[in-house]
């Protein structure tokens, strides 16, 4: 039996107009997410118009699919962390401001912008 990441269901509900963004953020914080690791100390971010984004995935399989779609090597390391740890600790080590894209390229993709109530206050753009 496959146990789906709880954040996925909340993201689907929200994208279908039935869920609340707060419920998604809460589920994301409690879930395990997977991040591509470039080396032991680096995570890839993309900067668009002064705002950096880090891709986080609900499963290693979706991370691999994302890399394949980008025609990147799928032979990469990854980190498995809770969404809470990502938002409250890992983002502090990345360029400021950095938000998170959850399950990029899927029908339930969500963004977590670097604002209060989502990320730690000291990295939020609206603090």
TrEMBL record:
InterPro entries according to UniProt: SseB_N
Q: Which Pfam families match?
A: SseB (PF07179)
All residue ranges annotated as the SseB protein N-terminal domain in the record: 13-114
Name the UniProt record assigns to this protein: SseB family protein
This chain's source organism reads Lentzea rhizosphaerae
């Amino acid at each position: 039996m496959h146990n789906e990441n709880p954040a996925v269901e909340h993201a689907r509900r929200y994208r279908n107009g039935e869920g609340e963004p707060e419920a998604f953020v809460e589920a994301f914080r409690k879930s395990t997410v997977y991040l591509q690791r470039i080396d032991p100390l680096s995570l890839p971010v993309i900067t668009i118009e002064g705002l950096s984004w880090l891709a986080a995935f609900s499963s290693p399989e979706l991370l691999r699919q994302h890399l394949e779609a980008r025609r990147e090597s799928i032979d990469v390391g990854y980190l498995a962390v809770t969404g809470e740890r990502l938002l409250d600790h890992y983002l502090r080590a990345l360029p400021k401001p950095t938000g998170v894209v959850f399950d990029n390229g899927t029908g339930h993709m969500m963004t977590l912008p670097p604002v209060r109530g989502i990320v730690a206050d000291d990295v939020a753009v609206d603090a």
